[in-house]
């Protein structure tokens, strides 16, 4: 299927016609407005405009963003999400008991979107489920890469910009393929299927 199907067309496709489609093709089938509305309300987030749905092959992960303490980072993340920047990117660095990192278009931790962000360090502790920005030595070098903490990591507090927290689906983050060595680089890493702003569903 080269083009998106219209709503009337998707309603007329029976299970028998769609069950054998490859994943690439099934992803293109348009979701109905009613289904999207039900999904949107099912997450029960505080602010749908500042919440993300991160889809993985294991399940859906909901991230509520902290626009009050990291407004510039949240704004940039939403901008990238709405551009589809993160879709298909890998969790290239995953360390058991520490964190899972993604957001590099090169898949090796050296890439970004090309726009550096001024640090918005805050007092939110790096505990299990917290989402924070990866960066280089320069405090103002965060770009598109982020990490999700598997456990409490107090040594990171005040050194990296915390901008969100996983409020649902952390068990799916736990399932991501782990890396090796101190770098935690992963062979054939799991990927982000898609990220959406929940208000846009």
What can you tell me about this protein's structure?
This protein is of the alpha+beta class and 201 residues long. The chain has a single domain, classed as Cyclophilin-like (Cyclophilin, Beta Barrel), CATH 2.40.100. It is 20% helix and 18% strand. The chain contains 6 helices and 8 strands. It has helices at residues 7-11, 15-18, 23-26, 33-42, 71-83, 170-174; strands at 51-55, 60-65, 93-95, 99-102, 130-133, 146-149, 162-168, 194-197. An 8-stranded antiparallel beta sheet has the order 3-4-6-5-7-2-1-8. A hairpin with a 3-residue loop joins strand 3 and strand 4 (99-102). It is globular and about 45 Å long. The model is unreliable at 1-29 (pLDDT under 50).
Q: What's the total helix number? A: 6
Query: Can you give the helix content as a percent range?
Result: 10-25%
Mean pLDDT: 87
Q: Name the CATH architecture.
A: Beta Barrel
How far the N terminus sits from the C terminus, by CA atoms, comes to: 23 Å
CATH topology: Cyclophilin
According to CATH, what is the class? Mainly Beta
- Order the strands across the largest sheet as they lie in space: 3-4-6-5-7-2-1-8
Query: Main beta sheet, described?
Result: 8 strands, antiparallel
Rg over C-alpha atoms, rounded to the nearest angstrom: 18 Å
Shape: globular
Low-confidence stretches: 1-29
